[in-house]
Structures are given as C-alpha cells and as structure tokens.
Amino acid sequence: MKTQLKKGTLDMCVLAALAAGDSYAYELVGILSRTMEISEGTMYPLMRRLQAEAWVSTYLVESASGPSRKYYTLTAEGRRQLSWMQQEWREFVNEVNAVLGLAAGAGTGEAS
Fold this sequence. Notes:
Elements: H1 2-19, E1 23-24, H2 25-32, H3 40-52, E2 56-63, E3 66-74, H4 76-106
Antiparallel strand pairs: 1-3, 2-3
Helix pairs in contact: 1-4, 2-3
C-alpha cells in the first residue's frame, strides 16, 4: 500500500522540494530520501516526465568537481500544478480520515 501511495504522490513531493529551491536530480534524491525511500533510478525518468509536462525547466551550472550539473526549477505551470495537487491531497486525506473515524466509532456502538 505504501508503495502505491508513494507512486501517486511522488510528483507532488518533487514539485514541493523544488518550490523550496532549485536543485539537481541527485540532490533531490538526497532531500526526499530523508523521509522516504527513493532511488536515482526512479528520479531521472520522473524528472524527464516533469520536464515534458512543462512543470519544470532546466539550466546548467558549471561544477568545479566535474561536469556541469543540470538544475531543475519550477515553471509557473509547475507551481499551479503543485497548488492543485496539494489541495487534492488535503481533500483526500480528509476523506480517508473521515472514513477511519467512522470505522473507529463503529467499535463503540451497541451490538445488534
């Protein structure tokens, strides 16, 4: 179940991380892996898809320790999408919590 939930929310998590500041893919893996399991193998295809959706754009930054790094930044459309996703997430969490509350209350009712 946790894997499916992560798949459904990973775009939102990446966009939220980028809302805090531009980043390159490997750095994003480090940021997200503080709180969830994620691999580079997941991140790179995800970033290509987000770029194809025009939710992120890229720019190169020279690196003294190797090749230039491709940084990702949110586009205006990416910010709109993140806002929509966050609203959808809050509504979904409220709906699930309401059902869980009903289930918890069912154990305190009278027997039939």
